[in-house]
Amino acid sequence: MEQTAHKSFGKFLIVWFGQLISMIGIGLTAFSLGVYAFEKTNTATSVALITLFTFLPNILLRPIGGVMADRFDRRTMMIIGDLGSAAGLVFILSIMLTGDIQLWHIYVGVAFSSVFSALQSPAYKASATDLLDKDQFSKGSGLVQLAESSKFLFSPIIAGILLSVTTIEVIMIINIATFLIAILAVLVIRKSMKVEREEKDDRNWMTDIQEGWREVVTNKGVLLLVIIISLVTFYLGFLETLIGPMLLSFTDAKTLGTFQSVSAIGMLISSLCIGIFTMTKKYASVLVAGLVMCGLAFSLLGVSTNIYFIIFAGFLFLSSLPFVNMSADVLVRNNIANEKQGRVWGIIGILSQLGFIIAYSLAGFLADHVFNPLLVEGGALASSVGQIIGTGPGRGIALLFIIAGLFVILIAIITSRLKMIKSLEQSSDIASPPDVGGLAHD
């Protein structure tokens, strides 16, 4: 594994900026492909399958990506990951240009990109620890959340406008270009940073994966936190997959893009606050409060078809999410040694995201065959629940959102009473500044 000779927030910002641009491009394609699939089939299942194939290979292969991030140059792994992700989009684009594309072509292309994203993501996370001092972790996490929020803040409204004036092929070309910008940013860092390498380790990869697994499961607080996040992601997976079909059932793509972008201003504000104001304690309390607000906003998304009310609920939801992500990220990062973070983030990646995988697999079926039929005219709940939240296309998805939000609030209440979660924060407070990866502080 490599070690950086010194830390630099400026170099972190260069890598972060490349990822910010790349995230905007990814958001453009994700939004456009979802709208394209829904307009072709008018079913939530097709949208859910695109999301599933985009996500599943990434998560299943992330432990291997984590081991590779510890064994090889992390910046090289990021470059390879971005190149492979771009290649998957090139495949979809080439088929589209022939005029004979089928949905399964899209599934194959996004799955191919997802495989290479599994190499990029753990390397990027571990590189953040390479480049940041401990007291910069929360600030760095806030900026990472800001980059993540760009998929919701900028991409939807840009994609909605672009779809009204140009084609999905042009949008995919733009996304491919953003990957190249991300690669260029990493190349700048690669040339400017001195690297020290440890002696080559002859252990097989499975040994490293097992070590990452042991590092997670032997720290009971980290393991419990990962389980909690996985339960939350199960419910959030329904929101991520079905918010488009719900809104498209009574509005158009441009309005959907506007909703996502305007409501994401909440995520921008929260991420900026986290990035500007350094937090050094109370992460467990912030985690619980963030989960409560997320759950409340989640439920509010389903109670009305008024687009302004939905935007308010979306704003509240996305403004809460960065605090949840930052708190969980820092609690884990402060309790895991840097030289093991690549493999550990790989293991945590697959465990914490299992909820998403299950939700993506179930979302289309539940929406099209269970919840939506309940709230159509004459449906089983049309005369009861339907009198409150309305009936018609997409209202069953709204009911699913209300139920899921209530469960997220319940998870928050349980989390607030768990001593092992609080112990993670206490461990962080009493620990001396670690010699992470054998590196000295500036």
Automatic annotation (TrEMBL):
Record's keyword annotation contains Transport: yes
Pfam families associated with the record: MFS_1
Membrane topology (UniProt): Multi-pass membrane protein
Localization per record: Cell membrane
Location, primary (coarse class): membrane
Signal peptide (residue range): none
Keyword field contains Membrane: yes
GO cellular component: plasma membrane
Transmembrane region(s): 12-38, 44-64, 76-97, 170-189, 221-238, 258-277, 284-301, 307-332, 344-367, 396-414
Keywords linked to the UniProt accession: Cell membrane, Membrane, Transmembrane, Transmembrane helix, Transport
Domain Major facilitator superfamily (MFS) profile: 11-423
A molecular-function term among this protein's GO annotations: transmembrane transporter activity
Stored PANTHER family: MACROLIDE-EFFLUX PROTEIN (PTHR43266), MAJOR FACILITATOR SUPERFAMILY (MFS) PROFILE DOMAIN-CONTAINING PROTEIN (PTHR43266:SF2)
Protein name: Major Facilitator Superfamily protein
Taxonomic lineage from the root: Bacteria, Bacillati, Bacillota, Bacilli, Bacillales
